[in-house]
Specification:
Rossmann fold; globular; two-stranded antiparallel ribbon; 4 helices; 176 residues; alpha/beta; 35% helix; 9 strands
């Protein structure tokens, strides 16, 4: 008789764990999504060419700015930790509004990017940034984080994106 009771207890424990995992899945999925996006932001950098005038000195750091709401938490700091682009350390800065000194601007809300008064800054926004003229826009397709590059916005910003990165991007949507 003890065996069926143990099986029942084990089954209930397993069901409770499964229910708890399902309850946590959306937030875990969201944090995984932003961890992937954080890594993309850092990994975009070597595939973009900025004009020399974008930096105050030859060894000035490369600054990734998270403007407004920060969905990344420590994931962006971990992705950038110890990374360099040539002599430039990659640093992350959180700011309430767009300001000078940013080389890559990420904004979750589109109003933050319009207008982006910072010259030679790669602008990146979330997949919910309709109406913003971001250079790169994240898109989640079939459960995978992907990105779309707007070549017109990139050219207008005075930047050049490598054909390797362009080849990995989803095609631009018509009318954007």
């Amino acid at each position: 008789m003890a065996v069926p009771v143990q099986r029942l207890a084990a089954s209930l424990l397993l069901a409770a764990c499964a229910a708890a995992a399902r309850a946590e899945a959306p937030s875990a999925g969201a944090s995984l999504e932003y961890a992937v996006k954080a890594n993309f932001l850092v990994r975009f950098v070597p595939f973009v060419t900025w004009p020399a005038t974008a930096f105050v000195a030859a060894n000035a750091p490369f600054v990734i700015c998270i403007v407004g709401e920060d969905p990344f938490g420590s994931a962006i700091d971990e992705a950038a930790r110890g990374r360099t682009i040539g002599p430039r350390a990659i640093v992350v800065r959180r700011t309430a509004s767009v300001d000078a000194g940013c080389h890559l601007l990420y904004a979750r809300k589109p109003a933050v990017l319009v207008p982006a008064p910072v010259a030679a800054a790669l602008t990146v926004c979330d997949n919910r940034c309709e109406g913003a003229r971001a250079m790169i826009r994240f898109a989640v397709r079939n459960g995978r984080v992907r990105f779309v590059i707007d070549p017109v916005a990139v050219q207008a910003g005075g930047l050049t994106i490598s054909s390797k990165l362009l080849g990995l991007a989803l095609p631009p949507e018509p009318g954007r």
